[in-house]
Design a protein that fits this description.
Length: 225
């Protein structure tokens, strides 16, 4: 008589204790790789936020902010200058701040001047991203055809724009400034002054502002690119 024997082959199920150890090992393996993946994502996000994400902060200028002798954007080096807005943030060589000054007079819009500023692309040894503090200012002077007001800036290393010598006189009885962060993708209404009190809404376009508010105002619109 041939005796029957029970054999456990290579493909047979392991005992319950070995199954439990295998399950725990799989859990440890999965958790370890999950933590590694999260760490890698955190590093990638930090690099993106530090070097590639475009964001700046905007605040109202104060008496402690230095008034410079000259500002980019003014047609007159002897303009009576005053800071109105301070923009600060990390600028790569392809980060740009565009700003324009408009006069809104009883619903009619006149673009006075506009420019785009940023960093110079040919400075040897410059870092991929540098912090710039850009001061926006209004400059005023008397011309042969009346009082001229233009928007200027200082703190950038490169810029270009276009001006007009249109004469506009608006009493400065009220002013307000947007305070917060600015990101690419849309324009922000960041400053207003004029002869009538209004509630500043940075989400309005200049056309919407003119349709909504009666009175006479200087309005600054800005966009990060």
């Amino acid at each position: 008589m041939i005796a029957e024997h029970s054999l456990v082959g290579r493909d047979a199920e392991p005992p319950p204790k070995e199954l439990a150890r295998a399950d725990r090992s799989g859990v440890r393996f999965t958790l370890k790789h999950l933590l590694i993946s999260l760490a890698v994502l955190a590093v990638v996000f930090a690099i993106w936020a530090g070097y590639f994400r475009k964001v700046v902060t905007v605040r109202a200028a104060t008496v402690n902010d230095p008034v410079r002798e000259s500002y980019f954007g003014f047609d007159n080096d002897n303009a009576d200058s005053r800071n109105i807005v301070v923009v600060k943030g990390g600028f790569t060589k392809d980060t740009w701040l565009s700003a324009s000054l408009a006069a809104v007079q009883n619903g009619e819009i006149t673009i006075i001047n506009e420019f785009t500023v940023g960093r110079s692309s040919n400075r040897i040894g410059s870092l991929p991203k540098e912090t710039l503090t850009i001061y926006l200012a209004l400059g005023e002077w008397e011309s042969s055809h009346g009082r001229v007001t233009q928007l200027g800036s200082v703190g950038q290393t490169r810029g270009g724009g276009a001006n007009s010598d249109v004469s506009v006189s608006i009493p400065n009885r009220f002013s307000d400034c947007f305070v917060g962060t600015m990101i690419p993708g849309r324009s922000y209404l960041i400053y207003v002054e004029g002869d009538t009190f209004v509630q500043l809404d940075s989400n309005l376009t200049i056309k919407e502002f003119a349709e909504k508010h009666a009175g006479n105002f200087f309005v600054v619109i800005a966009q990060l690119k």
